[in-house]
Design brief:
single chain; Deoxyuridine 5'-Triphosphate Nucleotidohydrolase, Chain A; four-stranded antiparallel sheet; three-stranded antiparallel sheet; globular; magnesium; Deoxyuridine 5'-triphosphate nucleotidohydrolase; EC 3.6.1.23
């Protein structure tokens, strides 16, 4: 699949790190480093603008290494980029640790996953079909 992209940043386009990777690493485009205090959040620019085909979205997801080692995550994970959005891709990064973290220019701050989706049409009804689970909610499966 080919996706049109404008790169206004000074880093190479995102790449897959391995042959079977699902996500492309997004890099921070910063004129100076940004220190994130505990529980602080910041919108990190990437310099990237994309044009997705209809029926696709781009998902901005946390990087597992940053989450595990430093407690950093993407606050609205996964962040959805719709096919009609033409603005810059930003990463809403949050520091969930008890220590400061310095986000540097070029830092791989998130992953971008391209996913196909369906558009639904609601069909109002009075009842739904029965299932074994029924209306059992959070934590209801696997219990007798």
């Amino acid at each position: 699949m080919k996706i049109k992209v404008i790169n206004k940043g000074h880093h190479a386009l995102p790449e897959y790190q391995t042959e079977l990777s699902a996500g492309l690493d997004l890099r921070a485009v910063l004129s100076e480093s940004k220190v994130l205090a505990p529980l602080e959040r910041v919108l990190v620019p990437t310099g990237l603008y994309i044009e997705l085909p209809q029926g696709y979205e781009a998902q901005v997801r946390p990087r597992s290494g940053l989450a595990f080692k430093h407690g950093l995550s993407v606050l609205n994970a996964p962040g959805t980029i719709d096919a009609d959005y033409r603005g810059e891709i930003g990463v809403l990064l949050v520091n969930l640790s008890n220590e400061q973290f310095e986000v540097k220019d070029g830092e791989r701050v998130a992953q971008l996953v391209i996913a196909k989706h369906e558009t639904v049409e609601w069909e109002p009804v009075e009842t739904l079909s029965d299932t074994e689970r029924g209306a059992g909610g959070y934590g209801s499966t696997g219990k007798k």
